[in-house]
Amino acid sequence: MLKPDSLRAALGDAVSHIRENPDFLHIFIDKGTIYSTFAPSLSFEYQYTLNMIVTNYADDANLLIVPILHWLRTNQPDIMANPDKRGDGFTFEADFLNNGVRDISIDLKLTERVIVKEENGKLHVSHAEEPPPPPNNVTEFEIWMQGRKMTAWPA
After folding, report:
1. Is residue 147 part of a domain?
2. Is 141 contained in some domain?
3. Is residue 57 classed as helix, strand or coil in its secondary structure?
4. What confidence tens digit (pLDDT) does each residue in 71-82 have?
């Protein structure tokens, strides 16, 4: 599975709380299944819920949610594109601890396609890419709130 590490890296770039405190981001895989058919190839799909818990978070929640949406646009676009998945593809809960500090738990329903090809008795395994996101020419993303630049990260 490649997406958990990809998401961790993306949030480390975009979210100062995680960049400065990487141990405050905990990632778990829940409800995982392997979806495979009796087709000639052994190709399959990982289907799982990625549970991410960000602890001791005191910043505006938008500074966490927007980078996740940006990552999803490239890495799991069907959560946004498919009306059936919008309702439960990205869910969250928050525990308000004290003085504005929260633990935020986020669930993302993710899939990863794995292609297995046989050539001369050897099985070659590779991960399939997601469909390309809508084109843009942006090289850096920034989040602005109330006229102030809050964070930036490379596109």
Report:
1. no
2. no
3. strand
4. 999 899 999 888
